[in-house]
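Dear support,

We are seeing what looks like truncated structure output for some complexes. This example has two components. We would appreciate it if you could run it in full and send us the complete token output so we can diff it against ours.
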Amino acid sequence: MSLVATPITIARYLRKLGADTRALAYLELDQSLHVIASGGNLEILGTTTINSNKSITSQVDILVGLIPTGTAPVIIANAQMVKDRFFDLHLFKELERQWVLLLDSTESARNLQADQQVRLNNALLLEQEQKSEKK
Amino acid sequence: MSILQRKVCMLGSYAVGKTSLVRRYVDSIFSETYTTTIGVKIDKKMVTAGEQQLSLVLWDVYGEDSHQSVVPAYLRGLSGYILVVDPTRETTVQSAVKLHQMVETNFGNKPFVLALNKSDLKDQWIGEQRDLSYLEDSAIARIETSAKTDTGVDEMFDNLAAALVPSNEVVLE
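Here is the complete output from our reference environment:
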């Protein structure tokens, strides 16, 4: 999704984050959480078609319970709905609109996963050693 | 009849088997390999509790460890949770207590099932633990589970689903 095709609200938010090149998709919702506009790759949410006559929470599982938000953004880092694809979910409200923004985090999540795997494998080994010493 | 949607979070220390329990429940598979979870994996499972159909949206949240705590934003809008401990590791019980208190502080009293996982390793379970008794008293159910042998997994989710029926939260159109 390029910034050129992005609504001003999203472009402004992305600029603040300095994350414009990672933008995957966005949804603009009305007060009843129906889609007014959308753009980008929504497949990462596990769906290809959005019905604007239905609440988005009945169509996109991850949004159940999360929206509506207040004006302060809610951020869920490294969410995964489709195998091996990660995204950061940004939710915020501006005027009467609820915005849902997805930023690709696949590469950073894979790196983080590799580092964390090593760290936690070591932590588990250490726990086992300490347990053996106690016996 | 309408289908109720309910967000359910899997919470616990790292490597207690949260992901394995979800994989067993949703996909009927188990792997011996430990793969750490980054962020959150979202899954869905349709269940029936009494006459009511529920869509459980399962949030398999990254585990707590000495370097990272679970951020409350991940739990926003949860209806209930599965608190998973590995009774072979005492630290996982302490971590579960901390998580339970974090949920209560941020979201109030939500129903949860206490899963004593890895029941296939019961001979290695550590005996009486005071923190465990505290959690058992607060939970709607205490269930011994094993994703490996498929023990108690359906029962665990069924118990929680039954507790999520009475209130109305989000109804599918």
